[in-house]
Amino acid sequence: MSIEEPLLNLRNLQHSDYPKLKVLMDNVYDDIGGAWPQSTIDHLIDHFPDGQIVIEDGERLVAVVLSALVDYATFSEPHKYDHLFDQHMHAINVVDGDALYGLDVLIDPEYRGHRLGRRLYEARKDLCRSMNLRAILAGGRIPNYHEYANQLKPTEYLEQVARREIHDPILSFQLANDFQVKRLMRGYLPEDERSQGYATLLEWNNILYEPADRVLDNTRTQVRVGAVQWQMREFDSVETCLQQVEYFVDALSDYQSDFAVFPELFNAPLMGLTDQSDPIRAIRFLATFTEQFCNELQRMAVSYNINIIAGSMVEEGEDGRLYNVAYLLRRDGSLERQAKLHITPQERRDWVIEGGNELAVFDTDAGRIGMLICYDVEFPELGRLLANDDMDVLFVPFWTDTKNGYLRVRHCAQARAVENECYVVICGSVGNLPSIESLDIQYAQSAVFTPSDFAFPHDAVLNETTPNTEMIFFSDLDLSRLKILRNEGSVTNLKDRRLDLFRLERK
Q1: Which CATH class is domain 220-488?
Q2: Residues tagged active-site
Q3: What is the pLDDT of residue 97?
Q4: pTM across the whole model
Q5: Beta pairing, strands 259-261 & 367-371
Q6: Is 315 helix (H, G, I), strand (E, B) or coil?
Q7: In the chain, what is the straight-line distance between the N-terminal and C-terminal CA atoms, in Å?
Q8: N or C terminus: fewer CB in 10 A for the chain?
Q9: Crossing angle of helices 38-47/18-28, nearest 10°?
Q10: pLDDT (tens digit per residue) in 433-460
């Protein structure tokens, strides 16, 4: 088998591999003593077999990574290479360690260019995630530094390697594999003349790491959202409307949903129970039912064990002014509110509704969420402020009459998902109700949008309903994918913001 067409196999290192490993180590480390003793390798395999990974091409061992379990607190501080071994040249291995230490990476010189190192590093990262370890640490040699030692200080050398003005075979590779230089270490390996004894303390953070106390709390990463594409219909009483609401809450709960989502002003048909000749009087009449709805929705949230996003309802404040307010009814019985901040011309003109002044992210047992009502999602600053506060899911209850109005909400919501690296759930109402002023037509296609990257659907649409049809729909959201995206995505919108040029601040 030629090197140009290798038949590669990735597996764990075995005791019987030592003769092949010795040949490889002698070849790669001829300048710093060559191969480790067999007893050192046997000890690693005996005490941490999963951390010793090799790639073979047929019968030939062509790449190896050797690792140990360590305490992060100890080895995230300056140390020396000798601190990793005992007096018998056995690598330390802390059974309950919370970090993986990269002892060595060896690539057969004839196989360089096949990206074997990257393959081994991905395997090591997978191991770190699967073991719920905090990080991968490593002491990285800088073997080309001796060529620049008379011109550059070690820190200047590191800066130029980071800017790709100088290539260092080890440091450049580590940086390309998402490792960060935490500090420079002096006297790390004194016999390493090419590095002048210097090394970098490198760290790769496991963004999925959960401390032991949080693991015991069973932190949720899989979240099921159920939403109601609600048909506006005439109701002969408040109780009839609440029965319809409870029917859907019950149905969504039966499918183990974590959230039940309703549209904006879903109880607006109750204006049909009064004289509509005066729109302001009719909307104030509607506001009289809001407290009753909140009380009943709190009961449902607890009884059906589901968090409810109660779309929005009209609320009369203590000042007598009207607000359009979204409610979060948690399944523990607590309630949160988010007023609509930007009021449409129709709301101001016909109903004299005013905008709220507060914006918040809310903690739930199924992630951190934000709520923006309809028009608010068309203002990107609001979504970014919520993202700055670590929002995972943005809920957008909406009410639009025409398709072009709906598309404004849809396209802006999808943009919020991409630019803020979060899930966005939009939920609207459908149906024609000519007997009630302002409710004569509705247009909606509810949907769940995702960031646009490989871990998500190709069109960044996780789910969507049939347009203009009353129905419920479900989507399973993986919050761990958001963490990976924000740190290791094809693009990282939040990380890459030029905060040296602009900043978004609340007044």
Answers
A1: alpha beta
A2: 264, 340, 374
A3: 93
A4: 0.78
A5: unpaired
A6: strand
A7: 67
A8: C
A9: 120
A10: 888 877 888 999 999 999 999 999 999 9
